[in-house]
């Protein structure tokens, strides 16, 4: 998804999106596209990962670059590896548009995507 894709007609809402418990914004159609633009805080990002709860198939993009996908569904938040190309875009001070598409075929549905830096203790 291109970061310049016009979103003037998009609805707004708080994550997570869906029909399952924990949803903050109702989503009950077959597909949803979400996006958020932000500036990466200053930091030492050595182990960035997506933290994703999806029901069902999900694709994630960083500044229009394919970053990750997962098929089927999960029942809780799980880490998802970021592609090397997308990872290079996630630098301190960078303007980032994070976008995701989720496709639903039946049953309950949910989507929430986060970006985390996993630090070994």
UniProtKB/TrEMBL annotation:
InterPro entries named among the record's database cross-references: Galactose-bd-like_sf
Disordered: annotated span: 1-21
Compositionally biased residues, Polar residues: 1-12
Domain of life: Bacteria
Protein name stated in the entry: Uncharacterized protein
Native source organism of the sequence: Microbacter margulisiae
